[in-house]
Write a structure and sequence with these properties.
Layout (H helix, E strand, L loop, with lengths): L11 H17 L4 H12 L4 E3 H8 L3 H13 L4 E4 L6 E4 L4 H27 L4 H35 L3
Antiparallel strand pairs: 1-3, 2-3
Helix pairs in contact: 1-2, 2-4, 3-4, 5-6
Length: 166
């Protein structure tokens, strides 16, 4: 794995083992393999930023593989792209609040599902077996949505207490 100056004292083999192990956990949870590897590599870098070339070198993959992974991670609000000043090269950044952003993005998906489920209940009829099943599914997602909102507020407070405003 390519090291940044501040990372020079690290054991590259141990870092690589962490990146691959954490990526495997993300894959097991449902993330695609290459985005999981790229995300783990960014997370393991001190600066939280790497170029496509650095990612490709450290992960031993092609620029096309990095590009596809970054596109996916950007869509999921897990990384952002930044231009290097005075250059056409892009750096990819993982933010300290990437989990918050990713979960907040999921909240918008839940809202769309709730809307579709409401429509389903109306279309099927609340008194039918399918309508009741749809209504229970809707109630579950409404519950989860409310819990996510409350949980994220608690996280903001805890994060600030533990890590300060960042």
């Amino acid at each position: 794995m390519t090291t940044e100056p501040a990372e020079a004292g690290r054991d590259p083999e141990a870092v690589s083992k962490f990146v691959e192990g954490f990526a495997a956990q993300l894959v097991e949870a449902g993330m695609q393999r290459m985005p999981a590897r790229v995300f783990a590599a960014l997370l393991a870098s001190d600066s939280g930023t790497l170029t496509s070339a650095e990612l490709g070198e450290s992960l031993r993959v092609s620029p096309a593989a990095v590009s596809g992974a970054v596109r996916y991670l950007s869509q999921q609000h897990m990384v952002s792209r930044e231009r290097e000043p005075g250059s056409r090269r892009e750096r990819y950044r993982v933010h300290s609040n990437q989990w918050y952003e990713a979960l907040t993005n999921r909240e918008a998906v839940l809202k769309r599902w709730e809307s579709a489920l409401r429509e389903g209940v109306d279309s099927l009829g609340a008194g039918t077996p399918a309508g009741r099943r749809m209504a229970e599914t809707l109630a579950f997602f409404e519950f989860v949505d409310g819990e996510i909102v409350a949980m994220m507020e608690r996280w903001r407070v805890q994060r600030e207490e533990r890590f300060g405003r960042g």
